[in-house]
Amino acid sequence: MDIPLSGPKHKLFGGKTVVFGGDFRQTLPVISDSGREQTVDGSITRSSLWPFFKVLKLSRNMRLNDSQDNRNLVGCGMNFGEWILALGDGRLPTKSFMANTPSDWIEIPQILLIYAGKNPIESITNDIYDTFEEQHMSTDYLSGRAIVTPTNAVVTEVNDFMLHKIPGHCRCYYSSDSMQLDTEVPQLFAETYPTEFLNALQFNGVPDHEIRLKVHTPIMLLRNLSPPNGLCNGTRILITKLGENIIVGNIMGGSFDTEEVVIPRIVLNIEDKRWPFILKRRQFPVRLCYGMAINKSQGQTLDKVGVYLPKPVFSHGQLYVAASRVRSANGLRFLIENEEDIPANYTRNIVYSEAFTDIAPG
Ligand SMILES: Nc1ncnc2c1ncn2[C@@H]1O[C@H](COP(=O)(O)OP(=O)(O)OP(=O)(O)O)[C@@H](O)[C@H]1O
Asked: Above 0.90 for ipTM, yes or no?
């Protein structure tokens, strides 16, 4: 916390009461190239201020509705709400499938599974985006559903698959990429890192060099453009017009639901310790959002979620975040693809229990 707060200097936050909200079962701050210990260490519970916090625990899941399918048992003698909590806490029975591999595989209840068939992406999108042909332009329909998956590469596959289903002309927008150097040898760098190389770079949370869009497709903003007007990182928008230099659309969901907004190209500065330069990419800060990365879905509430796991999750809290986006068990489906010797109703549930045990200082 480096927000300056006026008030007595000897008191925490200048004597102001500051409320922090969170759920340590969810994904933790991403620290690149870090292991379990560093990731947990980056959490607020490891801050020197943590002993001064007073922890209040919420007891009711307000997202879940009171439907019959939430009250029914989903497995292990638990109803849906209890199952989600047990999954997040790491209390579900686990097993290991191969020697020397983690023993954190859990069974997904049969009622929540769909099967891969010949084309897994087609299977899961047909299930989650049922009645797509009739409703693909409806903001209510689109804003209530998503396919979530651990990696951005698979997100792109899902989005490309859905884009093909939309009738109409596809418009391509290409970024203009350049390097910002803190060195005196730009010529050398220009030869080592030509524009084609810069164009090929992909980063989490950064639009690609090439973006393909159609009118009536949903996109997600990747940067805060104007929070007072609802244009925040994560805002979803249904495109109504694809101009040369602007994209026009209507916000889907939230307090700015249906508001018309205009998105310009912006310059994104991207630093990555793999490269000795700052990449400056001028592009629309958007990405199609039929599919989204599990980490990006954190915070969303949806009616139908397809959790697509062509590979298991790779980090703490991802499976819990994916499973807890919905209002009811009926809205949640998993499609799991495992190596041959592991049944398709098992997947990894990574829980760093030290991230939330013994967190109550006050
Ligand atoms: N007081 C309330 N009364 C009725 N519904 C509520 C209330 N609080 C939250 N909800 C419902 O629960 C959903 C989740 O709320 P919210 O996004 O504020 O929770 P959150 O703790 O940030 O969730 P998460 O961290 O899991 O994304 C909301 O979409 C809303 O439907």
From this structure: yes
